[in-house]
Amino acid sequence: MFDVEKPGERDVLVVIDPQIDFCPGGALEVPEGDQVMALINALAERFRHTVITQDWHPRGHTSFASTHGAAPFSTTTLTYGEQVLWPDHCVQGTAGAKFHPLIRESAAVRAELIVRKGHHAKVDSYSAFFENDRTTPTGLAGYLRERGFERCVFVGLALDYCVRYSAEDALALGFSTVLVRAATRAIDPTRTGEEALAALAAGGAVLV
Predict the structure, then answer these.
(1) What is the model's pTM?
(2) What amino acid positions are annotated as catalytic residues?
(3) Residue 157, Cβ neighbours under 10 Å: how many?
(4) Residue 5 pLDDT level (bands cut at 50, 70, 90)
(5) Are 83 and 126 in contact (CB under 8 A)?
(6) CA-CA distances (angstroms) from residue 78 to 37, 68, 71?
(7) Which of 47, 63, 76, 157 has the fewest CB atoms lying closer than 10 Å?
(8) At what angle do helices 194-203 and 164-172 cross, to 10 degrees?
(9) pLDDT over 80 at 103, yes or no
């Protein structure tokens, strides 16, 4: 059983999208999203190795509802399949795309790698490992393997999308996978949030 209090040399803390736009008052608010930041910082102090992902969309991104003249949270079919259309969020260079202040002051300083995702204008990216076309890699898997990491411990936002997809891909790529439940929040806690927890547990992730 993984002891979150005593991570090892081959464990890496993967902090998913701890950005202002995903916190209360942001463009794509995750309920209580800001409440995980202090715990993430505490965990980062225990881990020798930390990686952070950052949603980093160009203006007019294909996943934005405004790009299609559609209602936010509706869906459309793109070349790679069904896509949820989101409010404009985490646009490159904007205040909302920045890390939460607590993260900037602590965990981001300790991070050995920041992976920017969602920067391709025509394809969205939930996972830290692959774009939503499921074929375009971010390069994170190669980095982790070359560094000799074996276990990914996931925290951050949002549980039901970017955290879930990242953790599922980590499992599929052969990494031991842990989710710290108290250090993540879902856009929809009672539906897709619970679905994400059940799917990850069924897939072999350890929930602590």
Answers:
(1) 0.97
(2) 17, 117, 162
(3) 33
(4) confident
(5) no
(6) 34, 11, 16
(7) 76
(8) 10
(9) yes
Complete DSSP assignment for the chain: ---TTS--TTEEEEEE--BGGGSTTSTTPPTTGGGGHHHHHHHHHH-S-EEEEEE-BPTT-TTBHHHHT--TT-EEEETTEEEEPBPS-SBTTSGGGSBPHHHHHTHHHH-SEEEEES-STTS---SSSB-TTSS-B-SHHHHHHHHT--EEEEEEE-IIIIIHHHHHHHHHTT-EEEEEEEEEE-SSIIIIIHHHHHHHHHHTPEE-
Q: Please check whether residue 66 is in contact with residue 27, taking contact to mean a CB–CB distance below 8 angstroms.
A: no
Domain boundaries, the chain: 11-59+91-207
Query: Amino acid identity, residue 123?
Result: V
If you search the block for the tokens 């209360």, which residue do you land on? 24
According to the model, what pLDDT value does residue 150 have? 98
Question: Could you count the other beta carbons within 10 Å of the beta carbon of residue 13?
Answer: 28
Return the CATH fold of 11-59+91-207.
Answer: Rossmann fold (3.40.50)
The per-residue pLDDT for 107 is 85
- Say if strands 81-84 and 75-78 run parallel, antiparallel, or are unpaired: antiparallel
